[in-house]
Amino acid sequence: AGCDLEMPGPALHRGALLVKAAEEGRIEASAIRAAAKNVLRLGDRVGAFTSLGIPEERALDLPERRALIRQLGAEGCVLLKNEGDALPLKPGGMMKNKTLALVGPNAKTAQIMGGGSSIVNALHRITPFEGIEAQAGEGVMLRHAAGADNHRWVPALTEPMEVVFFNSADLSGPEVQRKTYPRTEHMWAGAVEPGVSSEAFSARATVAYTVPEDGTYEISLISAGLSRCLLDDELIVDAWTGWTQGETYFTFGCDEVVATRTLRAGQRCVFTLEFTSASPNPVPFRALRFGVYRPRGEADLAAAVEAARGADAALVFIGLNGEWDNEGLDRPNIELPHAQNELVRRVAAVNPNTIVVLQTGAPVTMPWLASVPAVMQAWYPGQECGHAIADVLFGAAEPGGRLPQTFPQRLADDPTHGRALHYPGVNGRVVYDEGVFIGYRHAERAGLKPLFAFGHGLSYTRFEHGALRVSSDTLAPGGSVQVALDVKNSGARRGQEVVQLYVNDRRSTVERPVQELKAFAKLDLAAGESRSLQLTLDMRSFAYFDETRAAWVAEAGEFEIRVGASSQDIRQRATVTLSSDWVQRVAAH
Q1: Can you spell out the DSSP letters for 76-111?
Q2: pLDDT, position 588
Q3: Low-confidence residues in the chain, pLDDT < 50
Q4: Which ranges of 351-469 would DSSP assign to H, the alpha helix?
Q5: What is the pLDDT at residue 47?
Q6: Beta carbons of 245 and 254 less than 8 angstroms apart
């Protein structure tokens, strides 16, 4: 299917199946050689075959790199809503004697990246609380309360996990290695530890935990391999008996197993974890995750409400994290987990100046949207997270991002919703027949009003689009069209505008989207500044791919050019007529 590499292994579709397919003549040996060569070429490019090997990972914590990361984080923020100019907040020097309530699970947690293979060890992680504290200035009181949770799995502990290893699958035999890990989650890929067999090993871990407060705690295990947890010699979590593969660790780990216990503040618990690599199915790596946590409840919501009551502004930091926005597993819905929606509702009820800072990697529903004046989508902006977010909140930076995806009103507005064969599939088979009708293309064909449109994003200033200028209203096959307009910042401060150009085929022999984004440009303009912008449309901008002819085809006729600030904010239109069909065949590979 055009892929050179199957990951993470062991091979399911390659290996013996690929050999069999070649022997039966279903795949050319030359195609296999080409795929292998591509993998080898990549290895050569990164230095895997040199005498020095791949260079060691380096950490370059330079001021200019911090500044760049901070700038990129701010420019990616999308201002979704801003009624009554709730944002930006007044600069630090003008906030004296003001009170800001910083509530939500992300206020003191830096959600800097999604999950999966893209995870890196950041040099530091600036939380929104730290970023705002640095800019708020003297005399500003900051209140904090988390209010709700947003984790997917019971959080792992930061207490040390002391592990003893055995070269057996049943914890028998002599101890072969000891290792202390800094937290209670670890993955072993390839080599385990010196002297420990990667083929078959077992381990016994000890975790000492002092209970911070009274309450009912969740205690959990997730493992790629079999695991169990004992407290005072009592088996309390069993991920050993009846272990099956689930959705964790790229589907090679089991689903989370959770038990609850009532614990007292100051109580010292010594947990014993037992693990074996002898899982029923072969997996490419082994992993163990142990969590202990008191879920936030009604008292925590009430504390957040009291923090917000009477504050000059309530900033609610909510969203997802790398456990939800991850590779190898799906979110069950597009709702915010736990009590985050209720948190926003209650805070907005006591503070009319409630500003929501949303951190997700994909759309979520917002049932509280009408009750808050401002919402900012901050995504996962990297290690300078808190500084970047604070820059936008206080107006030191412009919210320069625009939505790269449609935010639907509800999950049912997704083209695959409600059809098992389309999602999640039946007996390992999934049908992709939505074709090009995804995102805004699906919503516009179905007549659905999105929560926020593709390309949407507000600014702290105002922009005026001048009249469209099209180089020609007729187009010969193989030609191009230049579309120009003047853009003016008519507001009182510098800002950024993203001009978007969509094309509509007025009449086509195949079903095409209502409109398709074909060009865009981002302008940074000072207050009062105007600039002329030119966008070029070549023949591919008017074409669709014809599978029967294996060619790009633009059919003769009228095309409408639409220019605006989002797929739903079209401000100007012009018409271009293609004189005759244009066909560009694609060479076979």
Answers
A1: H-EEEEEGGG--SPPPGGG-TT-EEEEESTTTTS--
A2: 60
A3: 589
A4: 385-393, 440-446
A5: 82
A6: yes
Phi, psi angles (nearest 5°) of residue 93: -65, -20
Whole-prediction pTM value? 0.91
Name 198's Cβ contacts closer than 8 Å, sequence gap at least 6: 188, 190, 191, 192
pLDDT for the residue numbered 48: 83
- Give residue 171's region: left, alpha or beta (phi > 0; psi -120 to 50): left
Give dist(CA 529, CA 488) in Å, integer: 6
Contact 317, 390 (CB under 8 A): no
b vs e for 95-121, b when ≥16 Cβ sit within 10 Å of the residue's Cβ? Answer: beebbbbbbbbbbbbbbbbbbeeeeee
> Residue 575 is encoded by which pair of tokens?
């018409």
Residue whose tokens read 């904010």:
569
Residue 330 is classified by DSSP as: -
First-to-last C-alpha distance (Å) of the chain? 12
CB 182 within 8 A of CB 157: no
d(CA 459, CA 454): 16
Percent with pLDDT over 90 in the chain:
82
Euclidean distance between CA atoms 571 and 434, whole angstroms? 29
Structure tokens at 562: 């639409």
